[in-house]
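Q: Got one fold?
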Amino acid sequence: SCAFFAMSDLQAQTIHEEWVFEVVCEDGLWVWCLEEPVEGTAVYNVVIKLDKKGDVKKFHANIQGGKFVGCETGTVYKIQNSWNETYISNKNNGQQVIRIHDKTHFVAPKGVKYTVLFVTKVTVNANGEVLMDIESVDFCI
């Protein structure tokens, strides 16, 4: 029993969580594609992978279920999302690369789909200084 716990500390871990995001109209969450603020709830299934030292190496989240309602029109939108992050550390120089890919679909009545795609890559040196920051956001594709 003791040997098992000692060995488990040396292995990478995977953490499973559920995150619930609630938004009300007063928060002013404006969705460009929808041309109005929205309110509602999104429930994310989250998986976090840690390395042997306990540092985050990969992050993935996707919406299990959720809907937003247009604050002005009352239109009901289903939400679909996939959100991935990867953290890569260079052991030789302490540099770290963070990649984020977040794709969100808002599905309106009659199957009309609006997509927001956010992609970024950030390179940070051992002192925490950003060396390179590449980002792209595509709205309403």
About this structure: The chain has a mean pLDDT of 84.
